[in-house]
Amino acid sequence: MKAIILALLLLAGAGIYFYVSSDAPVLTVDSVKVIGNATPLNVHVEDPHGIRRLDVEVRQDGKSYSATSVETTARRFLIERHAKPVTLTSTVGRKSMPALHDGKAQIVVTVVSNDLRAVSAEKAFDVDVMTAPPTVSADGLQHYINQGGSEMVTFTPGGAWTEAGVKVGDYTFRSFPLPGHPGQYFSLFALSWQLDPGTPMWVYATNPTGAQARSDFWHKVFPKQFHSSTIRLEDMNIDRIVNQIDPDHKIPGDLVARFVYINSAMRKENNKTLADLRFQTEPKFLWTGAFLPMVDSTVEARFADQRTYTWQGKTVDKQVHLGFDLAKLAHSPIPASNDGKVVWAENLGIYGNCIVIDHGFGLQSIYGHLSEFLVKKGDAVKKGQIIGKTGSTGLAGGDHLHFTMQIDGVQVNSVEWWDPHWVKDRVLSKMGLTLEGADAPTAPAEPEPKAKAHKAKAAAPKKRHH
Ligand SMILES: [Zn+2]
């Protein structure tokens, strides 16, 4: 009998304990790193017993400032069993906490469960208070920009800023500290070939509180007329090209459909891969002076050639060729255009065997269709060093080098970078730098490789388009 009563009591006790007990509330808070005058902070609480108390505070210098304080009638026994999760937006910042000053602070969020045990949960994290607005002033220099080309601007951000750079329409170019000029920054930027010459551009400085400053800079754009051509797929050896890129026939459709897929969707994907290499850039100048063209080569295609592809008289695709096609003897040695570090040395779809060299601060050179690699990813290379041999891998009708350059992932006309005067006037002089001369080019740099129509070449088909 005693044993039965004891067992019943234990059971009842366990039942009551189970009834009133709870797990700690599950508290989730936005990971905010910077707060300004009035920064929203989302707080999410999951607790089936409901919330008895919720507090959001900012702490600084041993003082505490309340942003949100919610309290409900305490329930200890007749508790809620299925309270819905609560999401609440608190506003933190100097507007409601005038004593807060710029600098370090801490956000503390506490929540107490509405039951007998009143279990609490807390989230505390450090933030920066930034209320002084960012400022920025651009250099007073003249900026002449070729459509599809590059330019550089220096500027001085101030106040509370965390990010600064150049906007050109929808494009954003990063900035870096200007070597030798404390407090000053610079951005290499491009007016992408397809942007209107009237595209607005400015220097900006922002911080995560949403505050931003912008400054215009004097500039003049020279519109460019790009070449256009029609390519009859009947004249190209598309069977060889398509089956080299897609040997296992993974791309559906007939030969023309597979070619169009490679030429369009794969091109887009490959260009995205190239653009993403901007995140693998050194925060220093690896290059000196003008960039080397492949000398004595024939220019077979130019930057931003507008191409229409036809099959049996019908237009099947339109693409833009974002580089130079330079042909010489088959399997010609390819010199590194400048000092840098190899960030890509493997196959890349339409570019075939491809090398990308990072020259620092978001400037990179790209070499496509190689027959042979003579460097690997991670290698440091010197200007003029032979990095590989030309070939016809990828979307190439014949042996040539596809060469292009990119700034922060935007492909640009490399003619400018081949020109020592342009490099000096438009980049180096603006920075007060003399990177030229430190490492004399191993071959004469020229504005553009000269077409040498009569130069003997190894047997290679006339049409090399990619
Ligand atoms: Zn090409």
Structural write-up:
This protein is mostly beta strands and 466 residues long. It folds into three domains: 21-129, Immunoglobulin-like (Sandwich), CATH 2.60.40.3880; 135-222, Immunoglobulin-like (Sandwich); 228-431, Distorted Sandwich (Glucose Permease (Domain IIA)). Helix content is 14%, strand content 39%. It has five helices and 32 strands. It has helices at residues 2-20, 238-245, 255-276, 415-418, 420-431, and strands at residues 26-29, 34-35, 39-46, 51-60, 63-71, 86-92, 103-113, 120-129, 135-138, 143-146, 150-158, 163-168, 171-174, 176-177, 185-190, 201-206, 212-215, 219-222, 228-232, 298-301, 305-311, 314-321, 324-327, 333-335, 340-347, 353-358, 363-370, 372-373, 380-381, 386-389, 401-407, 410-412. Helix 2 (238-245) crosses helix 3. It is elongated, with a radius of gyration of 31 Å. The chain binds zinc ion.
Helix proportion: 10-25%
Q: Let me know the number of strands.
A: 32
pLDDT under 50 segments (min length 5)?
436-463
Radius of gyration: 31 Å
Structural class from helices and strands? mainly beta
The named CATH superfamily of the largest domain: Glucose Permease (Domain IIA)
Percent of residues in beta strands?
35-45%
Oligomer classification? single chain
How many helices in DSSP terms? 5
CATH architecture of the largest domain: Distorted Sandwich
User: How far is the N terminus from the C terminus?
Assistant: 94 Å
Which helices and strands appear, and what pairs or packs with what?
Blueprint: H1 2-20, E1 26-29, E2 34-35, E3 39-46, E4 51-60, E5 63-71, E6 86-92, E7 103-113, E8 120-129, E9 135-138, E10 143-146, E11 150-158, E12 163-168, E13 171-174, E14 176-177, E15 185-190, E16 201-206, E17 212-215, E18 219-222, E19 228-232, H2 238-245, H3 255-276, E20 298-301, E21 305-311, E22 314-321, E23 324-327, E24 333-335, E25 340-347, E26 353-358, E27 363-370, E28 372-373, E29 380-381, E30 386-389, E31 401-407, E32 410-412, H4 415-418, H5 420-431
Parallel strand pairs: 2-8, 10-18, 19-21
Antiparallel strand pairs: 1-3, 3-6, 4-5, 4-7, 7-8, 9-11, 11-15, 12-13, 12-16, 14-15, 16-17, 20-23, 21-22, 23-31, 24-30, 25-26, 25-29, 26-27, 27-31, 28-30, 31-32
Helix pairs in contact: 2-3
The structure holds zinc ion (ZN).
Zinc ion (ZN) binds next to loops.
